[in-house]
Amino acid sequence: MSPSKFYTSLNGQLEGLLSSERDWLANTANASALLFMEIEDINWAGFYFLHSDELRLGPFQGKPACTRIPVGAGVCGAAVSSGEPLLVEDVHAFPGHIACDAVSASEVVIPLYNTSGRCLGVLDIDSPTVGRFSEEDLVGLQGFAQILLKSSDLPKD
User: Fold this and answer.
1) Is the pLDDT of residue 77 over 80?
2) What SS3 class is residue 66?
3) What are 23-70's pLDDT values in tens digits?
4) Cβ atoms of 115 and 155 closer than 8 Å
5) Which residue of 15, 33, 49, 151 pairs with 121 in a disulfide if CB–CB is 3.0 to 4.6 A?
6) Is the pLDDT at 156 greater than 80, yes or no?
7) 157: confidence class by pLDDT, cuts 50, 70, 90
8) Pick from 106, 113, 111, 108: which is nearest to 122 by CA?
9) Phi and psi, residue 112, nearest 5°
10) Is 43 in contact with 60 (CB distance < 8 Å)?
11) What is the pLDDT of residue 115?
């Protein structure tokens, strides 16, 4: 299946899953489970939420993870600092990479913004394979994040 068709299907599944629920915690928990179940060759999928100047662990699937990441540190913190999604082919070559799981080799991180433009946190997906993620994955996952954001009653602060 082409990446475009895969993400059309995945995002349709997310819409169905969230159609009768608006709770952000329940929705991020189910979203991480859906990602972990459907995307091949990943070892972690989940969320970090912004609290002041650090990201704190949210719902996820995979091995235990770092619970707090300073803004600007690692791939997740860099995505928040830049305000841009990051696709990292080899995390071990990324300056300041935080090895929550030494097996992770590539990563894609999507910052999450509310309707007023405030960063709420990030969607983070890791793979044990160098170069696992493509630009098509990045675009598909940005669409996934947008569905999640519009389908959830997000925290106010």
Assistant:
1) yes
2) coil
3) 999 999 999 999 999 999 999 999 999 999 999 999 999 999 999 999
4) no
5) 49
6) no
7) low
8) 111
9) -110, 125
10) no
11) 86
* Helix H or strand E segment including 122: strand 119-127
| b/e sequence 125-142, b meaning 16+ C-beta within 10 Å | bbbeeeebbeeebbebbe
Element (H, E) at 60: strand 54-62
Which architecture, in CATH terms, is 3-150? 2-Layer Sandwich (3.30)
Reported residue count of the chain is 157
CA distances from 157 to 12, 83, 116, 121 (A): 29, 18, 11, 12
* CB-count burial class (<10 Å; 0-12, 13-18, 19+) for 8: middle
Alpha-carbon Rg for the chain, nearest whole angstrom, is 14
Q: Are strands 86-88 and 44-51 parallel, antiparallel or unpaired?
A: unpaired
User: In Å, what is the CA distance from 140 to each residue of 27, 110, 147?
Assistant: 18, 11, 11
State which amino acid sits at residue 156.
K
Phi-psi sector, 36: left (phi>0), alpha (psi -120 to 50), beta:
alpha
Per-residue pLDDT of 101-150, as tens digits, reads 778 999 999 999 998 889 999 999 999 999 999 999 999 999 999 999 99
Whole-number Å distance between alpha carbons of 126 and 105: 7
Taken in order 134, 66, 61, 63, the sign of the CA dihedral is positive
